Amino acid sequence: MLNFSSKIKCGLCVHRQQCFFNSLTKEEHDVMNKNKTEVDFKTGETIYKQGTSSNYLIFLLNGMAKVLIEGDHDKNLILRLVKPFHILDFPAIFDDNILFRSSVAVMDSRACLIDIDVFKTIVFSNKKYVPLLFKHMNQSQKYYSTRLISLIYKNMEARIADALLYLVNEVYYSRVFTLTISRKDLAELAGMSKESTSRILSQLKEQEILRIKGKNIEVINKKHLEYLSKVG
Fold it and tell me: What domains appear along the chain, each with residue ranges and CATH number?
């Protein structure tokens, strides 16, 4: 169930320097504050649904969420994991505000829902902000395209290697980490079945490339994962 929480003023936020909206003026922050809602999501709760229309731009304040493409028969593809102070996704803000992907909280999270029309008004009245918006959108689309090409052309070992390297380099920033996602999520991040994912993880463990104990993973030989990613 959604819980509506008290608002944190953007201009007073201690994480403002990390925020996508850092370049806004005080007046623009004030307008945004009046047109946003902060919402709490429980683990496993859908934040937004693929194919629906959205009147909000959603910015993650804390926790973690997955952005995914929903397929038939509960076969999904996780495109990325989103951490705090990032926009979850852009609806088709220049068309009909339709969402092309879904997002689900992978742990208890809080998000800021910003009125999309207010967002567009602020952005297009600030000449400095327009290039930042398009740069962010282009980077997102480039990342998604690269992910899909990788999943189409790479073999299963390479896809697992890519998923593990993504967790090391962009999510946990460490070769030793505790998974905050499920094994099913890891499989969907690699674009594979849970059974195939478990089999390849076991092989990497036997080859002493990984050390695995429950949800704790240590990448012992990162260079070998990079090699698998490159040649796969």
Answer: 3-133 (2.60.120.10), 154-231 (1.10.10.10)
